[in-house]
Here is the input.
Amino acid sequence: MHRLLLVAIVVGFILGGSGFAPSSARAYHTYEERLLDSTAYSLQRRRVRLGLFKLSYGIIDQLQVTTYTMPWLLGLIFEDVAPNIELKSTFYNRKRLALSASLGFLSGTIEQVEGVESTKVRYFLTPASLAASVRINSDVSTHIGGIFTGVSGDVDTSPGANDIAGSTVVDILQFWGMVEWRLSRVVAFTFTVRWVPWVSDIIVRGSLDSENPDIGIGLTVELIDLTNTFAVIPGFVFSWKRTNIRLGVGYGDFFVQGFALVVPRDVLSGVSPEFDVFVRF
Here is the structure.
């Protein structure tokens, strides 16, 4: 992990140094062109952002609509579409301060079939967030925000001797902060911290149907593994006329972009990557 972090920092500063010379090409890091991820800024009217992980369109200067690509791909794999959409509004943007609010939803189904028995899991996520961006000067900006995600789902297992049906609910609260330092019009250095201070208990409601009368199930499970999860990620955003690359490597848990879901650090051995490739026009 330390080697990956060192390589990212060295490459970033080399490209940053080579980009200090003025350029006539339209680049990402200007007063009008702002970082969109983990900030309060949104796309300008009729602008488009096409990336590996999300697609966005500026409806008006203060409102953009986004859909994330990964749920659609997973929906294809599990043979069931996973529609998702996010609306983000920069409702205040004056002088040095910008404020935004966003609301989205994600819905999908996962079905597993073994012989004559099948298990179907339906899930529904509703993330809502607030963010603030402060332009300290022409080169340095800070961004803070929070996102609350409600996760609900239900499970059906049938047919068989023991049919199970039930539902679950869990809520997740996440905060983030990011410092952005523009090394040039082409390169910006970012330092991001993410933290989950609170995760609700999982509420499980269901029934077990066997040859005996129905048995009601009520269960509460504490999610201690996700509470106080965090990530510290230094990175860089490289911008050319249309192509943009975001690259970062840090330590902690892995945060799924857009939905405040967390993959525990043990899964990736404590490496928290940040990567995206996208074009804007």
Summary: DSSP finds two helices and 16 strands in the chain.
